[in-house]
Amino acid sequence: METAADFQISYVEGFARDVTAAPPDALQPGMLARVLDEIDHGLLLLDLTGRILHANFPARRELSSARALRSGDGMLCAGSPASQAKIRQALKDAERDCRSIVELEDGSDALSVAFIPLAAVHGSETVDTVLVICSRRPGCEMLTMQMFARARHLTRAEQNVLARLCAGHGAEEIACLEGIRMSTVRTHIKNVRQKTGSSSIREVVHRVSRMPQIVSALRLVD
Questions:
Q1: Burial zone of 69 (CB within 10 Å; 0-12 exposed, 13-18 middle, 19+ buried)
Q2: Residue 220's pLDDT is what?
Q3: CATH architecture for residues 142-210
Q4: Residue 208: helix, strand or coil by DSSP?
Q5: Where are the chain's structural domains?
Q6: CATH number for region 39-134
Q7: Would the pTM count as exceeding 0.85?
């Protein structure tokens, strides 16, 4: 007779098989690429020489900006010799199956990049590819902010002010950029706080920044 413990074990084992079951092969490459494109961190797959094998949308956007990272003849390159040396060292460490995080200079800002060695075959000790994970740039995706604003019934003017706040602008800057009075900006900020049930505008911005950052399907960079 099967006991409760036996049933629990068999259920867990069956669930694990279902979860780890691979999808049909025809769906894997395209679906995986689409999933990676929706992640708000830049992700690149490199070989051990630094050649870019794949880059998701945020990574392609980072490369196209040519700030801390760029692509040169299909190779991952940095914006300065010092940063390039850090990338070379990180790839050497990855070849020895060592993970590392480096900071690449970008003017007043820095981009943190993690290098994760990936074995050729699961369980193998031979590393042949490296996953590169870029830190998120400050700010919020416009579509995420718009969805947040719509769910809380913000007016267009209130939404515009929230977008400016999420971009790091202060009240005086917003008044100048939007062409409105400071008193109007303060009124919009007050309304945003009340409609979102937040104690401060900093809390509102923090909430939006912690939401899944959804990228518009109408992308300017391919």
A1: buried
A2: 47
A3: Orthogonal Bundle (1.10)
A4: helix
A5: 39-134, 142-210
A6: 3.30.450.20
A7: no
